[in-house]
Amino acid sequence: MSRDPSLNGMIYFEAVARHGRVARAADDLKVSPSAVSQQIKLLEEMLGVSLFRRDKRQLSLTLEGEQLFMAVTSAFGLLRDARQTVSRQRDSHQLIVRIMPSFAVRWLGPRLAGFISQNPEWDLRIDASPDPSNFEREVVDFDIRYSPTPWDGLHCEVVLSDYVLPLCSPSYRLKLREEHGPDDREMLQNARLIDSVKAVIQWDNWLAGHRIVRSFKSAALRFDRSSMALQQAVNDVGVVLESTTLATQELLDGSLVPLVPELGAVNFPAYWIVSPSRHRSRKLVQVFRNWIIEEAEEHEKTISAFLQSHDIAVNNIPDAFNNISFQK
User: Fold this and answer.
1) Number of Cβ within a 10 Å radius of residue 281
2) Residue 237, burial from CB neighbour count under 10 angstroms (0-12, 13-18, 19+)
3) Position 80 in a domain
4) 44 in a domain, yes or no?
């Protein structure tokens, strides 16, 4: 009856393969060279193959040894990741969240002080990054991601719907009306457009959905962060097609206004909590998730009131744009 190799044998083999010498492996493992040699001999006998070529004092891997080394290295990496995860989860006050940068700065950031004051003992890490987590290889509790659709293989829960519409400064809107009159389409045809290149809804699709043809008198400006695009609109540079979630403060203080309220706002489920299902059982994940949902509900009330006060109709994605395929 065949036996599986011992874990000690694999540990000793990996060390010898990595160092190329028994003595160095023994120093690394804090054991005697004879103990290492004995484990390698037993492993080779058990497997029925030679794992090393012996050339004077230097050892090199045989083909079988190389195959085993690759497998052992991969397995040890998985074990290290699992150990880190288990060790971190023993600490009941540590939470790691990855969030889209503009959402983290503009929406979550101003609200965090309230959460921290309620939970001063928490070790909270916010990783503001556009790159989604690899939950099998990274120690992250959950992501908040931006898209109109959820992700396969992960538990997804929508946090916040978004409303997107053309925004500009009051002075830029006044300038357009003085130059081109109050006609919405003519204003948009001649406005300088500011693109948030990673946004779900892009100007080309939005204009096509409303059957507006650009005059191309002004070059477009493109930014890979919504915060930068919004700031340029505040600075009277042009019109940005952006999120009311990210522009809430500017809309409430009047530094940004809807350019064409009559054309409405596009609504879609934009921000999602995303994680493996197993992470949902952690108490800290549940507490933070509940807090975000409560904050999102209050935010939705504020934005809904703003849209109603400006008589802005709300349209869902495929109906408003005749099934145009939006960029994620």
Assistant:
1) 8
2) middle
3) yes
4) yes
**37-48 as b/e: b if 16+ CB within 10 A:** eebbeebbeebe
- Residue 56 domain flag: yes
Span 55-107, pLDDT tens digits: 766 788 899 989 898 888 888 888 777 766 665 555 557 889 999 999 999 99
pTM of the model: 0.67
Task: Output the CA torsion sign for 321, 325, 327, 328.
Answer: positive
User: Containing domain of residue 26, as a range?
Assistant: 7-90
In a domain, 14, yes or no: yes
Provide the domain count of the chain: 1
- Between CA 327 and CA 31 the distance in angstroms is 58
Q: How far apart are alpha carbons 100 and 128 in whole angstroms?
A: 6
Write the pLDDT tens digit of every residue in 30-62: 999 899 889 888 988 888 899 988 876 678 889
C-alpha pair distances (Å), 107 with each of 21, 49, 297: 56, 61, 13
The DSSP bridge partners found for residue 158 are 272
> Which CATH number goes with the domain that contains 80?
1.10.10.10
Instruction: State how far the alpha carbon of 152 is from the alpha carbons of 117, 161, 279, 320, in Å.
Output: 35, 20, 16, 26
